[in-house]
Design a protein that fits this description.
The chain has about 475 residues and is of the alpha/beta class. It has two domains: about 1-220 and about 400-465, Metallo-beta-lactamase, Chain A, CATH 3.60.15.10; about 225-395, Rossmann fold, CATH 3.40.50.10890. The chain contains 13 helices and 23 strands. The two termini are about 30 Å apart. It binds zinc ion (ZN). Zinc ion binds near residues 70, 75, 161 and 187.
Length: about 475
């Protein structure tokens, strides 16, 4: 153990809660060399943390490489900001993530510039920064080990969270020492309707390991999910109403399209009822799903329902004016951006409308605010004060995150868990889930990863925690 203190990695997170995912790892080698890398660099989306977006509590110029778990904005939205601040080295991710990143980052840039125009401030980064970021991408195949530094290798494993998503294993070695093995789950799901999630190879399960584990749904079990989407839709349409389903552009939008197609095939949704799909980026992603195939299994490539119309800015007016029963799918998933800003004010005060959220709504977003408003209460939507009369419903049945019991099962697969660092969850959720890990998983130590501490690990696990300077 004596010599292990010269060989360690310090792990810290830039965020305490769900969005703004970014982990910094500083590796110290026995020869005195230091290697720094970042896992994800996402935007803060909760309004109360927005000002943190312009704070990078490390020197981007000194970062040796970057790893990306998946293409969601809260994991990639600040990569160009890192580049703007001097980062110029490789960004490794899966082949599919590399194909999706140009659309994701360019859209993120557009959203940020329209927000800054409204606030009369300067955007975090420019289109040029996005271009430079894309130029740094190095695509990796699942299960293939890539040497990213002479002593550091990285392997991306399949993850059901999203097309292209990965669990990332980082193996740090030094002559004469045992390896330091770190596994980052990013956002994790054990299944996906569009592709098969392969099991983790047995040789990985036996490694002496530190896992950085997400905890978004660490407070609930999969058995607590109630499926209500279909019934809500049928009920609304039976009353000749309009269904407004809020979807995320990537993953959720395509899954809901498939759900509607299945309902049509099972005779639960009349094919005569028009389905409108509005959201530039969501339509572009859908096009990529169909044309490129990405990692989608062949039987899932044909996922579009019948009677589907793509809507743009021009045709949106006629959709809004149409009083007949219909289903509208639109973005953003939390309601705060995109065409949702045009549809929600219109339908929130209609009695026979259903506003159906299909995923997580972060605190401070419109979706979250509507949750807390009573029927008949006045709510502010895009500057307008309107009376909430529509049904506003939420479901976790389409979640792209594993639930607590599934995450526990995931962790139980590893036979030599030295440390589990719980991140990506509301603070109280992370605590609940950490306690559950202590009770149910054979892990030596469990910590809460956040802005307050960094965790020093050596080949045998946790050495100590140190308080950070950027609280
Ligand atoms: Zn995600």
């Amino acid at each position: 153990m004596g010599k292990s203190c010269q060989f360690y990695a310090d792990i810290m997170a830039m965020q305490n809660e769900v969005t703004g995912s970014c982990n910094l790892v500083i590796v110290k080698f026995p020869n005195g060399e230091t290697v720094r890398f970042v896992v994800d660099c996402g935007l803060f989306q909760e309004r109360e943390y927005e000002e943190l977006n312009s704070v990078l509590p490390f020197n981007a110029e000194n970062v040796d490489f970057c790893l990306v778990t998946h293409v969601h904005v809260d994991h990639i939205g600040r990569l160009p900001y890192m580049v703007r601040n001097g980062f110029f080295r490789p960004i490794y991710s899966t082949e599919t993530t590399c194909k999706l990143l140009p659309l994701a980052l360019n859209d993120c840039f557009k959203v940020l510039s329209s927000v800054s125009k409204r606030k009369n401030s300067t955007p975090l980064y420019s289109e040029k920064d996005v271009e430079r970021t894309l130029g740094l991408l190095k695509s990796c195949r699942y299960n293939e080990t890539v040497q990213v530094h002479e002593n550091i290798k990285v392997t991306f494993f399949n993850n059901g969270h999203l097309l292209g998503a990965a669990l990332i294993l980082v193996q740090i070695s030094y002559h004469g020492y045992e390896d330091i093995n770190l596994l980052f789950t990013g956002d994790y799901n054990n299944k996906n309707i569009f592709f098969d999630v392969n099991p983790i190879p047995p040789r990985i399960l036996e490694l002496r390991l530190t896992v950085v584990q997400e905890a978004t749904y660490g407070y609930m079990n999969s058995s607590e999910i109630t499926k209500c989407f279909r019934n809500n839709i049928i009920k609304c349409l039976n009353n000749d109403g309009t269904v407004l389903a809020l979807v995320f552009s990537l993953g959720r939008a395509q899954e809901i399209l498939y759900e509607l197609k299945t309902m049509q095939e099972e005779g639960k949704l009349d094919v005569q009822i028009p389905i409108y799909f509005d959201g530039k980026l969501a339509i572009k992603y859908t096009d990529l799903y169909i044309k490129d195939g990405l990692d989608i299994k062949p039987e899932m490539r044909d996922f579009l329902p019948e009677n589907l119309a793509f809507v743009d800015k021009v045709s949106r007016r006629s959709v809004l004016e149409d009083t007949g029963k219909k289903v509208i799918l639109t973005t953003s998933g939390m309601g705060s951006y995109g065409p949702a800003q045009a549809y929600i004010p219109e339908y929130i005060s209609r009695k026979n409308a259903l506003i159906q959220f299909t995923g997580y709504t972060a605190e401070g977003t419109l979706g979250n605010r509507l949750k807390n408003a009573e029927f008949g209460e006045m709510v502010e939507v895009g500057g307008l004060i309107v009376k909430k009369k529509a049904d506003v419903e939420y479901t976790t049945e389409f979640s792209a995150h594993a639930k607590a019991d599934e995450m526990i099962d995931f962790l139980k697969q590893f036979s030599n868990l030295r440390l589990v660092l719980v991140n990506h969850g509301e603070i109280k959720t992370k605590k609940i889930f950490a306690e559950r890990i202590i009770k149910e998983v054979d892990a030596k130590r469990v910590g809460l990863l956040g802005r307050e501490y960094f965790f020093r690990v050596d080949p045998y696990g946790l050495v100590k925690t140190l308080s950070t300077k950027f609280q």
